[in-house]
Each structure stands twice: as structure tokens, then as C-alpha cells.
């Protein structure tokens, strides 16, 4: 865990700190680089492959490039469940590189971490996560905790206190004559805030490990149902890739383009229609399916099922409704 | 507003940025210096006077001291309502210094800002706040909005967007065919979070300006009642200073110390009793009155009335109960 830091001592470390994350990672990673004073130029975007996974050889190449400039690569963010494609970076390969160069391994499992609760789906997606120095995991996403419930986990005990403690003795008195172990205020960056983790505790008490596993498996089952229905209607829908989690990426195909062979030109046409169809959904008030471009494609739809209350009938309705609203586009 | 920055252009500014705040300010100011990469050594604590207000001549002296070291003083945090004593830094005096040296004036009115809603109490406490470049104001404190509702206000329009925008086009699409003015996500540091300001909107609709004014005046009336009762029982309670807002700072005096003249030695004795009396309150389950030391005094009690549902009878009960639980200490 960050061995160079401890062996060499902080006084010997000099030079520009640089962090690395995939070009598919959440924008908050880059935002962190801005806020904490590194600067966005020192948050290096590592190319990803066609399925949205970080390419480990590219990571190593970019680390070496910064090293030759005298910089100090210190941190890699490995995304488990990217926002758009739901892709999982290869944790073990990235962990090997972090170990080789003495870098901190952070796993951003904010979106995909819920699948840890499913024996069926946790591997190979999250294999190696136990090697992380820190992990982000948002129960308010896949696990359905109410907004907001966002957690961070560290391998090193006491790290939050040693980093964040400001010892405000007018607020966090150490001379109280009763148990102060749960006075956690001085560990965290923010002060007076919700006890957001309590919601997760209640939920876990109610559902248990088994309940959460069923929840995760059900979401994946619904996703697989949607993929099946899209493939069955391949004249009307174009599946962009087999999903790794609940993100289903696809284009809707209106009548006039159904007999046109798929090509970059057709992708451009399909992309242009996304905002128009989305506006019709909003005006009609029946659907809210998001769309976005990525580095390789123009706009495409991305459907997410994150509530176990969704049914197969809802999936059927979604696809039929998109066709009803969009077939003349 | 921060004129040097604009006139000179960013490329000409070099050197260590330094911020200033009073030694009575909230610990989160120092924490900010740590998080955003300035380092806590570059958050200079300006001495305050006996009543807890920043001393403007000390501020100017410390600014000059850093300038002679080649540093760039750029930011002053002026506290309106300190955490412990409820003191208000002299905004106009501090604003004059900020203007003189081309520095950003931030007013931390998180605690005291509610008094802006009272014509009776806003002056002189918050006089000059209109000169601030930015203001923090937490409706979840004095105004009774439910945790959490914390706001920040800037004089310069568009600043949040120009500072925080990461242009994540996969989340904040600009090609939507409907009104996106309220898609505010790209302005803020955090991503998926509560719409906490909605609570304030509802509350303001229900209470109106007049309702909030009555709320503020009532809190101050209750505070004045408490001060009066403490003075009437000066054998049992020692008022440390006349409060500027709802913070009432005092010592409780047990029987054995009632005939001892007040002195630094008696203060030490009274301070030692605070945790013991607090523990008795917690064990009895009847009161939760906080205590803390400050730079000039050992532990003392600080009572806060921030709910308009408190009554004069509650204040009487509080003082009687402290005496019941503590008179033998």
C-alpha cells in the first residue's frame, strides 16, 4: 500500500503529483484533481477499449511518459461500472501496475459495487477489488438506498482521522465522561450533515445479504430480458454491445432507416434522432430514457434498470412506446 | 471584486496563495485550506478580541508579513456568528482592507446569517455584508430548515459554472429539445445529491419574510430572557459576556464555590466541573447543554436556542435542572 511513500518518507518526495483514470470514468475524478489543487492537466485520461474498459498497457505507457518528465505518478482510479457503458476496468492488471510503481489503487465502484452482493455476477467484474487501497461504493445507486448514501472505504485503519482531523476542541471534546467512539465528526471533511449511512443499515437489516443478492440478480435478469427483446426486434432496435451490468446501450431505428444497412452514416442519422425522440418522451410524459454520445459514437440511448419494482411488462412498454413515439422520425 | 486578478491576468500572478480567517472561525475554513491544496500553514489565524471578533489591525499586520515573504494574500474569511461565542467580525473594516489589497472577501454567515431577516438585529451585526464577494449561509442552522440546507452566494454571475464545469456531455446534454436552465448539475462540485434548497423554498412560502423575522426575534427574546435569569441568579451562574446572538456562554457554580471571589483559579475549578455535569445530564437524560474551552478560558457552558418552539418555561427548567444535578459538585 503506497510503499514508496512510507519507505522514503514524505520529505524525499518532490515533483508534480499525477493521477490516472480511464477516459470513461466519472467526471468527478477529474473534478477532484481540480479541487484538491493537482489541476486537471495532472489527471491523465487513459484510453479505453471498445467495450469501455481501461487498457492496462496504455496506463503503463502514460505512467512512464510522466515519469520521464520528472513527475510523480501516485494514484490510479480503476472504474468498476462506468457511467455510460457499465464497463469494468480489469482490476488485477491495474493492481499489478500500481504495485510495480508504488501507486495508490482506488476502485470507483460507485455504480458497479452493488454486484459484489451477487455470487453470480461479482466475478469476473470485481475480481481483485480486495487489492484496492480505497473503494468508492454508492448504495444509493444500484442497491436502491434513498438519495443520498455514498460511502468510501480504506484499507489503512485510521487514515480518515490522520488526514482530516482538525482537532476543533470546541466541537469534538475529548474529555467527555461517556463513550465517544461514535463521535465521528472529526474524521470527515464536512461538518453538520445527515447520518446517511443509517438508511443502509436499516435496509440491510430488512433485506439481509440474501435479499440484496436477489435484488441484484433480479436487476440483471430484467436487463437480460431487455437485451433479448431488443435482439428479437432487430429491425427496430440496434444493440450496441452486450452489457456487463444494467446499462443497455442501443439505437432506436425509425421506419425510414430499417432497410438501410448499418454504417457510420446510419449511426449519425440515428444519433441525430435521439434528442427528438427524448423530447417526445418528455412531452408525452410516459418515458425518461437517457441518451448521450461517447468517444466512438454519436448519441445513443442508454437504459438503466435499478429498481427491482420494474417488471418485464415495463420493459415491453418501454420498447413499444419508443416505437410508437419514434417510428415516423 | 478581486481586481488585481482581472487587471493583471492570471499569467502574471505567481507565489504562494495565502488566506486569512479569525482564530474563532469554524474549523472548516482551515480544512478547506488543506483540501484545496493551499495547506493549513497558508491559512493564517488572525487574533480576535475578548468578545471573539477579528482584530482588523492584526489582519493587516499579518497580510503585510506574508507580502514581505513574497506570498500572495488573496482571501479573507470574515465570520458572522462564531461557533462558540456567536461573535460578528467587523465586516466594513475588513472589507476596507480587502479593497486596499485586492483580496477576496468571504463572509461566513453560516450561523449568524439568519439575523439578516430581522430588522431589529441585523444591524450592526451584519452591516457591510453587501460588500462581500461570497457569502455562506446555512438555513439549517438558525432558520430551522431540516438538516441539511447549506447555501453559498457569489456576487459574480456565472462563477460556479466557470469554476466547476467539467462538461460531462454524457450527463449534461446541451442538445435537449426542452428548457435546460434548471439542469444545474454542472455548476456544483458534487453530482447526484438531494435538492436541499427545496426545503427552504417550501419553508419560506409557508412563513414568509414576516414569519422568519418573528422567528429570529423570538429566538433573541428567549436568549435575552435566559441572560436575565442568569443575572438574577448570579450566585449560581456566571455570565461570561453579553451575547450578540443566541449563544449564551456561562459557568454553573456549585454550592462550595458560591462564596469564593471570581478569579482565574475559580475559572479553572468551574471548567473542570463542566464534563462532570454534562455526563450527569446525559445519564439523567434531561438536558444536552454543550461545553468547550476557548483560547482565553477553560471549559464553559454554551447554550443555544435555535428552535422557536422553546419557551420561557424550558429556560427556567434548564437552569433549575443544572442546579439540581450540579449543586453538590
Automatic annotation (TrEMBL), chains A, B:
<dbReference type="InterPro" id="IPR021115">
    <property type="entry name" value="Pyridoxal-P_BS"/>
</dbReference>
<dbReference type="GO" id="GO:0030170">
    <property type="term" value="F:pyridoxal phosphate binding"/>
</dbReference>
<keyword id="KW-0456">Lyase</keyword>
<dbReference type="Pfam" id="PF00282">
    <property type="entry name" value="Pyridoxal_deC"/>
</dbReference>
<protein>
    <recommendedName>
        <fullName>Glutamate decarboxylase</fullName>
    </recommendedName>
</protein>
<dbReference type="GO" id="GO:0009449">
    <property type="term" value="P:gamma-aminobutyric acid biosynthetic process"/>
</dbReference>
<comment type="similarity">
    <text>Belongs to the group II decarboxylase family.</text>
</comment>
<dbReference type="GO" id="GO:0004351">
    <property type="term" value="F:glutamate decarboxylase activity"/>
</dbReference>
<dbReference type="InterPro" id="IPR015424">
    <property type="entry name" value="PyrdxlP-dep_Trfase"/>
</dbReference>
<dbReference type="InterPro" id="IPR015422">
    <property type="entry name" value="PyrdxlP-dep_Trfase_small"/>
</dbReference>
<feature type="modified residue" description="N6-(pyridoxal phosphate)lysine">
    <location>
        <position position="141"/>
    </location>
</feature>
<keyword id="KW-0210">Decarboxylase</keyword>
<dbReference type="InterPro" id="IPR002129">
    <property type="entry name" value="PyrdxlP-dep_de-COase"/>
</dbReference>
<dbReference type="GO" id="GO:0005737">
    <property type="term" value="C:cytoplasm"/>
</dbReference>
<dbReference type="InterPro" id="IPR015421">
    <property type="entry name" value="PyrdxlP-dep_Trfase_major"/>
</dbReference>
<keyword id="KW-0663">Pyridoxal phosphate</keyword>
Amino acid at each position: 500500500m503506497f510503499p514508496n511513500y512510507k519507505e522514503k518518507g514524505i520529505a524525499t518526495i518532490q515533483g508534480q503529483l499525477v493521477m490516472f483514470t480511464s477516459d470513461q470514468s466519472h467526471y468527478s475524478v477529474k473534478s477532484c484533481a481540480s479541487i484538491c489543487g493537482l489541476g486537471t492537466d495532472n489527471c491523465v485520461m487513459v484510453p479505453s477499449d471498445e467495450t469501455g474498459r481501461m487498457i492496462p498497457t496504455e496506463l503503463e505507457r502514460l505512467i512512464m511518459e510522466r515519469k520521464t518528465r520528472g513527475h510523480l505518478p501516485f494514484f490510479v482510479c480503476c472504474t468498476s461500472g462506468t457511467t455510460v457503458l457499465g464497463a469494468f476496468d480489469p482490476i488485477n492488471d491495474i493492481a499489478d501496475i500500481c504495485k510495480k510503481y508504488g501507486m495508490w489503487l482506488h476502485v470507483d465502484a460507485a455504480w458497479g459495487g452493488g454486484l459484489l452482493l451477487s455470487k453470480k455476477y461479482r466475478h469476473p467484474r470485481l475480481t481483485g477489488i480486495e487489492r484496492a487501497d480505497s473503494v468508492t461504493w454508492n448504495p444509493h445507486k444500484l442497491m436502491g438506498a434513498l438519495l443520498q448514501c455514498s460511502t468510501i472505504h480504506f484499507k489503512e485503519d485510521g487514515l480518515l482521522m490522520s488526514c482530516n482531523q482538525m482537532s476543533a476542541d470546541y466541537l469534538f471534546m475529548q474529555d467527555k465522561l461517556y463513550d465517544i467512539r461514535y463521535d465521528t465528526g472529526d474524521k470527515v471533511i464536512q461538518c453538520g450533515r445527515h447520518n446517511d449511512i443509517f438508511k443502509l443499515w436499516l435496509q440491510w437489516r430488512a433485506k439481509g445479504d440474501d435479499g440484496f443478492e436477489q435484488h441484484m440478480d433480479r436487476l440483471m435478469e430484467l436487463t437480460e430480458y431487455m437485451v433479448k427483446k431488443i435482439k428479437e426486434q432487430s429491425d427496430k432496435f440496434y444493440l450496441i454491445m452486450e452489457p456487463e451490468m444494467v446499462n443497455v446501450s442501443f439505437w432506436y431505428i425509425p421506419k425510414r432507416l430499417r432497410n438501410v444497412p448499418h454504417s457510420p452514416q446510419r449511426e449519425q442519422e440515428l444519433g441525430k434522432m435521439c434528442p427528438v425522440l427524448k423530447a417526445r418522451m418528455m412531452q408525452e410524459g410516459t418515458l425518461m430514457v437517457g441518451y448521450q454520445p461517447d468517444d466512438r459514437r454519436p448519441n445513443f440511448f442508454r437504459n438503466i434498470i435499478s429498481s427491482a419494482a420494474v417488471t418485464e411488462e415495463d420493459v415491453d412498454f418501454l420498447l413499444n412506446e419508443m416505437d410508437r413515439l419514434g417510428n415516423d422520425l
